[in-house]
Amino acid sequence: MSRFYVGSEVGQLKRVMLHRPERALNHLTPSNFQELLFDDVLAVERAGKEHDVFAQTLTEQGVEVLLLHDLLVETLAVPEAKAWLLDTQVSPYRLGHQFASDVRHYLNELNHNELAEILLGGLSYIDFHITSQSIMQSVHQKTDFIIEPLPNHLFTRDTSCWVYGGVSLNPMAKLARQRETNHLRAIYRWHPDFAQGDFVTYLGAEVCDYDNAMVEGGDVLVIGNQTVLIGMSERTTPQGVEALARGLFEHKQAKEVIVLDLPKNRSYMHLDTVMTHVDKDTFSVYPEVINTSMQCWSLTDKGDGQVKVSQNSNYLSAVEKALGIPQLQIITTGGDSFEAEREQWNDANNVLTVRPGVVIGYEGNHYTNEKYDKAGITVLPIPGDQLGRGRGGARCMSCPLERDDI
């Protein structure tokens, strides 16, 4: 039986899920990239090669790499999973009864690999070679999408996050990403590696309207010692934090959730864009956002499904107390104020820790990487000229499935 457990941010990383940029990036254009939450169109082949370096770096460090595309293909081989995904992703309310029926019939005839490519990468009207009795084809341009591409699947951290002995299937904040969660619901429910797994689900198991309870995995740091650090950001709401905390407490997987109030700004869209855990007692932070003046709370279990909320004096003392560390070591973004702002934008603080004191980060963040080195943190550099245009670094692009405690 496969083991799924993430006990920290810095313990030995053993297994991780990535998504190599594919068809979805080919559908990214100057007219739609903002709607799809990117800052630019990407050179697709170069982005793929950069991602290959990332995956290879992990493999060389002894980490097993699973690819989302492959997991989805293998999940679609389970008839119940395929039927559920087609019904969910191509619903009558999305496309109308007649057209949804025609599209599902077309997709059902594809092989599993072709179907996975379309579910992940999108389908335009120009590529749909069936004439439907629906009015949908008549009122859309050929380049409109029947199924919108999901280029943000690249950032596997956000859609689901593993916290100790369970997983949160996250209700995503942005419309462009909300369908992603159904792919993970299907994989975790039906894929042979997960179907028999011993884990619980804290949030998001059902397909329903989660209203304002939104969580994205980039805001969730599993810092160890039964403690979770969560940022309330542009993408994660107080309602979502409370819902996840209640799930953690109900299943006895955490004793405390520390909550930080972040600016609601795309530059700092998730906590891990301004703060990551790089060694047992060391964090990387962007000090313009992460500092002792920011609001910080602790959530604990009152019992009977109730959550106790306590205000903390500052985040440093709260984390030190939770981890039993006398004094945290803080590495701030490198360079002067201008250089630090640029490097934060280019994900200098968004590194993926492979094991204590060893991280993967973009090679272009020279000033911050130099500060890591001087602090005794080894940086395994990867290229990110293209990948970084989606506003995500190595941590954003990885969903740990198995990692040791501190």
TrEMBL record:
Pfam families reported for this sequence: ADI
Gene Ontology biological process terms in this record: L-arginine deiminase pathway
Molecular-function annotations in GO: arginine deiminase activity
Metabolic or biological pathway: Amino-acid degradation; L-arginine degradation via ADI pathway; carbamoyl phosphate from L-arginine: step 1/2
Catalytic reaction annotation: L-arginine + H2O = L-citrulline + NH4(+)
Compartment(s): Cytoplasm
Top EC group: hydrolase
Keyword field: Arginine metabolism, Cytoplasm, Hydrolase
EC number in record: 3.5.3.6
Active site: C396
SUPFAM superfamilies (alphabetical): Pentein
This protein's GO CC annotations: cytoplasm
Top-rank taxon: Bacteria
Principal location listed in the UniProt entry: cytoplasm
HAMAP family: Arg_deiminase
PANTHER family the record matches: ARGININE DEIMINASE
Family annotation (NCBIfam families): arcA, PRK01388.1
Family assignment from sequence similarity: Belongs to the arginine deiminase family.
Protein name per its UniProtKB record: Arginine deiminase
Record organism: Veronia pacifica
